[in-house]
Amino acid sequence: SPTATTAAHDHLAQIISKSHLETCQYLREELQEMSCFLQEEVEKFQNKPQEAMWQLCAVKITDAIQYVVEFAKRIDGFMNLCQNDQIVLLKAGSLEVILVRMCRVFDPQNNTVYFDGKFAGPDVFKSLGCDDLIASVFDFAKSMCSLHLEEEEIALFSASVLLSADRSWLRDKLQVERLQQKTESALQHVLQKNHRDDGLFEKLRTKVSALRSLCALHSQKLSAFRAVYPDTVRTLFPPLYKELFAAD
Amino acid sequence: KEKHKILHQLLQNSTS
Fold first, then answer.
1. CB neighbours of residue A3 within 10 Å
2. What is the rounded distance in angstroms from the CA atom of residue A97 to the CA atom of residue A71?
3. ipTM, 2 dp
């Protein structure tokens, strides 16, 4: 019945929102107090050797991924998937979820993102040597911010990104598809409930391909970096980062 | 699998 469906959507939305808030790493309120890096601090980042800045970013991404794994574990049904599929989904989707979550720690007014204790503009990441990737990531965060999503909407969108049934190497595609459909229905229900414009769900769908391009670009940049500095990656990068992104 | 040792561990740890 429609009432039962509405109740089920509300219930799922509630569980996923709770999981999101419990694992979101930073609360918006605590970030409001934070300032931007001063020029001399920006220069310190810019003067870091490329390897050191890559290592720092790999560490930050790995920290964030641990929260995403915790989020995944609390999504209804995720832990009922076989472990192969849990790993496939996290391997393909954890960076995408971080990019979605980034809109929570992004200030579109001055194009800065929370990084290593303060708000940082794209110039902070100059020594990575990937200006195009950084510019694309900032553009993506800006466009996500312009949708003014509420936490509940970010939570459900993140969950649906993670539960993408079209990832390669899934054993039980059908089960993932069912979970994704349930999450997407709950997202649509929440958008309707919040009186969002009709096009928002479709706009979010278009973000999925942007996320995939960003992750592909990250892999490409990592391969190029690793070709020049194989020992840095091997000895200094966090093991979890290597498992996810730098498998041989 | 050995290839995803840490991810395995994280998934198996009980939710804190």
1. 7
2. 10
3. 0.89
Asked whether A160 and A100 are in contact (CB, 8 A), the reply is no
Cα(A152)–Cα(A197) distance, rounded to whole angstroms?
16
Q: What mean pLDDT do residues A141-153 have?
A: 97
**How far apart are alpha carbons A134 and A102 in whole angstroms?**
13
B7, A239: Cβ pair inside 8 Å?
Answer: no
What confidence score (pLDDT) does residue B3 get? Answer: 87
**DSSP annotation of B1:** -
Q: Say which residue the tokens 């995408």 belong to.
A: A96
Q: Which residues of B touch A70 (CB under 8 A)?
A: 15-16
pLDDT of residue A248: 62
How would you class A221 by CB atoms within 10 Å of its CB: exposed for 0-12, middle for 13-18, buried for 19 or more? middle
Percent over 70 (pLDDT), chain A:
100
B interface test, pick of A19, A68, A237, A240 with most B CB neighbours within 10 Å: A240
- Cα separation, B8 vs A1, in Å, equals 40
What tokens appear for A4 in the block?
């039962």
